[in-house]
Amino acid sequence: MGLLLVDLQERLAPAIAESPVVIDCALALVAAAKQGALPILATEQYPEGLGLTAARLRRELNPDWIIEKIAFGAPREDAFRNALIARGIGEVIVVGMEAHVCVQQTVLCLLELGYGVSLVGDGVASRAPLNKAVALQRMAAAGARIVQVEQAVARLRAGAERESTGQT
Q1: d(CA 160, CA 139)
Q2: Residue 141: predicted pLDDT
Q3: Nearest partner of 103 among 150, 157, 49, 139, judged by Cα
Q4: What is the pLDDT of residues 116-167, one digit of tens each?
Q5: In terms of Cα–Cα distance, which of 88, 142, 138, 79 is closest to 111?
Q6: What does each C-alpha distance from 72 to 7, 35, 42, 108 come to in angstroms?
Q7: Strands across the sheet with 2-6, in order?
Q8: Residue 1 has pLDDT above 80, yes or no
Q9: What range(s) does the Isochorismatase-like domain occupy (predicted)?
Q10: For a tag on the chain, would you pick the N or C end, based on fewer CB atoms within 10 A?
C-alpha cells in the first residue's frame, strides 16, 4: 500500500477554495504513511507553469518521492509506473487537485492497470464544486473506493501493521 499526492502545487492552490483543507488532509496522510514506513509518491503537473508542490507539504517530502509529469494521468508516464513497481505498491490511497482532471485521469488509469484505489473524498478538490462531485461519482463507478481522511489514516496505519507482521 502507498500514498499518492496528485498535483498539490503552489500556483494551482490559490484558484481552489478547498485547497487548504486538501493540503491539511495530505499532511495527515503523509504523517501516517511515514509512521508506518509506507511509500509516498507525489506528482507535479508541468511545474514550470503550475509551480512546485505546496511549500508546507514539500517540507515533509523526500525530493525523490516527487515525479514531474506532463500527462494528466500519472500512470501514462514511465517514471511514475516505474516508481510504483520499484516500491511494490499494489494499492494506492489518493489525494490531490483537480479532482475532475489529473486526479480523475490518474485514478482511472490506476484502475485500468489493476491497482486498488482508495480516493480520499475530503482530500480532493476542483475549482468548481460540481466538477468534484461528478468526478467522485465517475471514479466510484469505475471501482475506486471513496473514503474520508480519518478512514484513510486508519488504513495506512493498519496496512503498515499488516506489512510489518507479514499479514496480507
Answers
A1: 25
A2: 99
A3: 139
A4: 999 999 999 999 999 999 999 999 999 999 999 999 999 898 866 655 545 5
A5: 142
A6: 10, 30, 13, 11
A7: 66-69, 40-45, 2-6, 91-97, 116-125, 145-147
A8: yes
A9: 3-151
A10: C
CATH architecture, domain defined by 2-163: 3-Layer(aba) Sandwich (3.40)
Give the span between the Cα atoms of 97 and 119, in whole angstroms: 12
Any idea how long the chain is? 168
What are the residue boundaries of the structural domains of the chain, listed by start? 2-163
**Residue among 62, 102, 163, 138 at smallest CA distance from 94:** 102
Instruction: Quick: pLDDT tens for 10-22.
Output: 999 999 999 999 9
Task: Answer whether 96's CB lies under 8 Å from 122's CB.
Answer: no
Q: Transcribe 113-139 into DSSP letters.
A: TT-EEEEEEEEEE-SSHHHHHHHHHHH
Q: Which residue has the cell 507535479?
A: 44
Helices 149-165 and 19-35 pack at an angle, to 10 degrees, of: 20
Burial label for 68, CB within 10 Å (0-12, 13-18, 19+), is middle
